[in-house]
Amino acid sequence: MAEKKTVSAKDVIADIRVGMTDEQLMKKHLLSAKGLQSLKDKLLSAGLLSQAELDSKLVPPQGATSNRLSAKAILADIEAGVTNEGLIEKYALSNDRLLQILGKLVESGHLTQAEFAKRASGNKLVIRPTTGNLQGVPSPEQPSPEVEPQEKQATGESDLTRQKAEEIGQKAYGVAKEATGSAISAIKILVTDPMGGQGKALELLGEIQALSAGIVFVVAFVFSAVLLLKAIPFFPSSFEIHVKMAITALVPAVGLWAGFMAIGKLFKTNTSLNKCVFSTGVALVPTAFTFLALVVLGLGNLETVALVGFFGMSITLLLLNSAMLDVLNLSTQQAVLLTPTLILVSAYITKVIYGSLLFVRGW
What we know:
- The longest helix is centred in the middle third of the chain and has 43 residues, at 150-192.
- This protein is an all-alpha fold.
- The chain starts with 8 loop residues before the first helix and ends in a 5-residue tail after the last helix.
- The protein contains 14 helices and no strands.
- Helix 10 (197-230) runs antiparallel to helix 11 (239-266), helix 10 packs across helix 12 (273-297) and helix 11 (239-266) packs antiparallel against helix 14 (332-358).
- Helix content is 71%, strand content 0%.
- Mean pLDDT is 77; it is low at 57-67 and 123-148.
- It has helices spanning 9-17, 22-29, 33-45, 51-55, 71-79, 84-91, 95-107, 113-122, 150-192, 197-230, 239-266, 273-297, 302-326, 332-358.
- The radius of gyration is 35 Å and the shape is elongated.
- The chain folds into two domains: 9-148, no CATH class; 182-358, no CATH class.
């Protein structure tokens, strides 16, 4: 016994409402003329389709012999890039009539909302989406669709802008999450091997992820420095002051990075911007922890401040020396001499930048 064919009533209704001819319906859904008529009768009896929808006719294109407009033809023209003016001229439509048809194509799923919005905005009109059951493509005698005022269009544009902002925010969150993961991986390697860990971390992470980790370390340093400045009694607190504090804290990091780059270029080592950013961030991690410890312990006890500061500076010097060996690939003799040189060069560059900032108006 042959298996009985199942036809989606929802698809048939959608195709009828966009103006498909009987021949197109029979071809698409593999129905005979008798089967199609029987299906129409059942849809009418169930109240899923009205007689007006079956009887509605579209204005045919110039030179066409059919009394119904082919939705397939309109969609083909849209995909081919025919403009609204071209569709109006080809199918002898008014501007409002074209928008009616485009709106019904969207409702039936034959046209995306983005494509409709692009064409509707070109006409400075936006059709309000139909609620409830879908209606057939209206005939010219039926009333024109309600047109949204400019305020509604502005609301739609605002929603689109908000959606784009959310997408950008999600992407930024993803990038920040990945960078933080890279930084945590680097910290784990450095904890297990403080002196030789930078080279291993670079090899494991790769230069791109190492750059992300370095940026995270620098941001952590700037954040800790701002917190330390805020811990100073009677220190002014405003948004402008916070921005200036962040820039002030960022300058030494820039100076240290420039020092790494200068030494790498001078000795023609296999260095790069990404590697230098990573080594700069790694070297600033102990200082960041030092600042946070001082915020927690307080600045009142000078002995505590000196002890914590000495501890952090010692580890920083060891990490700088490690970077000379593992990242810049210098010899032990060169690394011993160039580590203090790097600090002096970085301090000088930092001084120059601070001096330049003093001449910036409003600083």
